[in-house]
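Key result, reporting period 2: structure in, sequence out.
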């Protein structure tokens, strides 16, 4: 969001130069927010507040607060910023890769296919170029090193996949076996962030809406599932799910979402998805974004 012309925008914040000096402090990006969060925790510990400070900042999201939108709003409505986005500096919960990983552990292996390293995962690659339809969604994960006080991991790689607008998984579902869309690998830069351009996944029967991912030490190691250092999932907030599923193409998701809950989900239910609940920003009309920090044992 651009600053208003009459506002004075600081060039530094807490002694650090802003990566985007022409934007407000709250629009500096996920990596800057993570660093700010961790710096403040260190100050609080030094002052003797320790657990109190950690508990306070565990509630802070990585994106600026956006007024909550009415569930079921039209496609022009801004999304609510919900979910934590930035978690405590504790290892992301290890979760199942599910029955449709496409990493060679259960049938198909996309990791060694030419074209899988890409930022835009909406289309299939290779023999098919089918484009997955749905509400645009940018997925950003910040890969952080537990051993280094959650410093970003330069060069870590992420393999990410999820179902399509109809709840189908490419490579597996009967009507999508010849497709490999909504799967891709990205390497993180010095800020530890990987970014994927995708679509908002459906809610299929029995599961809360989610995105799968595996973390690897490097792009070179991301060709073999045996090298992964973490497997987890991103949970999508209920309010934005309601808004997206009110749009055309997601009709079956409305009924499926009504039959599940985050608290009872067989993956997220152990802690209510607290450490895996993404922070949503943007608008359905112009595209949504989900952010999550992913602390791992590198």
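The corresponding designed sequence is given below.
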């Amino acid at each position: 969001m651009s600053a208003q012309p009459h506002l004075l925008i600081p060039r530094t914040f807490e002694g650090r130069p802003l990566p985007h000096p022409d934007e407000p402090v709250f629009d500096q990006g996920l990596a800057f927010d993570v660093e700010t969060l961790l710096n403040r925790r260190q100050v609080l510990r030094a002052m003797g507040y320790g657990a109190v400070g950690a508990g306070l900042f565990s509630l802070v999201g990585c994106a600026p607060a956006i007024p909550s939108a009415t569930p079921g709003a039209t496609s022009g409505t801004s999304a609510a910023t919900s979910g934590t986005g930035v978690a405590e500096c504790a290892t992301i919960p290890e979760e199942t890769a599910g029955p449709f990983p496409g990493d060679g552990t259960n049938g198909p292996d996309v990791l060694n296919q030419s074209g899988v390293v890409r930022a835009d995962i909406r289309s299939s690659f290779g023999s098919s170029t089918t484009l997955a339809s749905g509400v645009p969604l940018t997925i950003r994960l910040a890969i952080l090193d537990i051993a280094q006080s959650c410093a970003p991991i330069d060069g870590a790689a992420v393999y990410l996949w999820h179902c399509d607008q109809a709840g189908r998984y490419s490579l597996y579902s009967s009507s999508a076996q010849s497709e490999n869309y909504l799967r891709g690998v990205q390497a993180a830069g010095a800020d530890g962030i990987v970014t994927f351009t995708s679509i908002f996944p459906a809610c299929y029967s029995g599961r809360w809406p989610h995105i799968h991912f595996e973390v690897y030490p490097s792009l070179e190691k991301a060709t073999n599932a045996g090298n992964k250092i973490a497997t987890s999932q991103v949970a999508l907030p209920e309010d934005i799910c309601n808004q997206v599923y009110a749009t055309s193409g997601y009709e079956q998701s409305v009924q499926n979402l009504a039959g599940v809950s985050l608290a009872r989900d067989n993956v997220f239910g152990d802690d209510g998805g607290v450490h895996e609940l993404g922070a949503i920003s943007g608008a359905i009309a112009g595209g949504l974004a989900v952010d999550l920090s992913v602390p791992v044992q590198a």
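The helical segments are 30-46, 50-57, 238-245, 251-258. The mean pLDDT is 81. This case is discussed further under Risks and Mitigation.
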